[in-house]
Structures are given as C-alpha cells and as structure tokens.
Here is the input.
Amino acid sequence: MAKRRAKKTARRKSRSHKTRAKTNPKLPKDAATLIVNLRAREGQELLLEAELRALVGPTRREQGCLTYDLYRGAELPGSFLLHEVWASREHHRLHTQTRHFLRWNARKDALLASRDATFWKQIG
Here is the structure.
C-alpha cells in the first residue's frame, strides 16, 4: 500500500512539473519580447482601447507572433500595456509593415499622451 501511494505522489509531481514547463516555455534563441506602455490623451481612452483591441486578432495570426496580449491599467485609467513576443526582431519588423499596423500607426498620435516601448531578451 505504501508503494502505491508513493507511485501516485510521483505521478502527481511529474504532472505538475509538466504543467509548469508548458506555461513557462523556453523561447527560441532569437525571440524578442516587446513591452509597450501606452497612455491615452484625455478624452481618448475609449477610442484608444478600441484601436488597440482591433490589433489583437490580426496580429496574433501573423507568422512569428508567439504572444500578443493587451492589458488595461487596473489602477491607472487610460493606461494600456502590450506584451508581445516575436520569434525574431525580423518578424516584428514585418509586423510593422502590415495593413493593420500601418492603420494604427497613422492614428496613434491623435490618441496617445505617451508611449514607451522596450525590447527584452529572455535569459532564464
């Protein structure tokens, strides 16, 4: 009976380890993470959110897009964060030439009070 319990415990630990590995995978060597913080101009919060939401679907379908998530500030109205992970900087460069990105790029200045974008590399 003790052996059966030990096997069950070992299987549970094995499964939980596998689950953790899937939720935090090692990215490809050339992957680039982009964090973009955006603040809306006063009165433009809803329009900015709509424009950002319109980017999500088409961007996620692009080749090389590993992650593209949009967040709204929980305590900062009119603040948004984009968490993007691309297979490479080249994939991101190609993203900036798509129709949906060019549409966003043409409209963003009227909607934004500030924008800060930084590329990151996974190290662990």
User: Anything to note?
Assistant: The helical segments are 2-23, 45-60, 89-95, 99-111. The beta strands are 32-40, 65-72, 79-86, 112-120. The radius of gyration is 20 Å. The chain has one domain: 32-120.
